[in-house]
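Input chain follows. Return structure tokens only.
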Amino acid sequence: MQQPLHRRRPTPGNPRVQRTRSRVLTVARELLPRTGPAGLTYALLAERADVTRQTLYRHWPNRAALLFDLILEGPDLGNYPEPGNDVRTVATNWLKSLRDGISQPAIRTAVLAVTAQADHDPDSAQALVRIGQDRHASLNTLLEPSGVQIDDTEFTLLYGPVLARLFLDRGQVTDEFIDATVAQWLTTLDSSQRPGGRGGR
């Protein structure tokens, strides 16, 4: 099963390379909330992670690539949902996982930075698209047992209220807010997507 952004790990390879990547990302995750994206220079990161700048550029040729992996390979919060037949339950648990992942300071900062740079930086724009594709594919994998697969619009209608509450309203995303979001979202799904009571309705 494809893992969500804050749990996905790189494909296993050379253990030494993976250890280096892991160490760099751990240091970057610690620094980013304090320095901000502009302050997280490769010079600082190389010094703190005890690697060369050439090593950093070999793994992440630009800052967008580094921020992308910070999001994709974030801390394992241990609460990603399992696939299921009940659309309401899967969607609710997935939104809670999204909320918990973005609540991590480094991931939150990285997401905001990639989004802010997307209008004028092609690498950031591509990273933002790939992040959305990764989450969309992960959710559809969870929904497979229900027979429901959602398109881009339906996906946006599900996660949009949560991101708006977090980043625009600067408010808390409570379990009650998520329940209300999912209830409203279920009404937008085409009837063919919700066969005979299969969505927890």
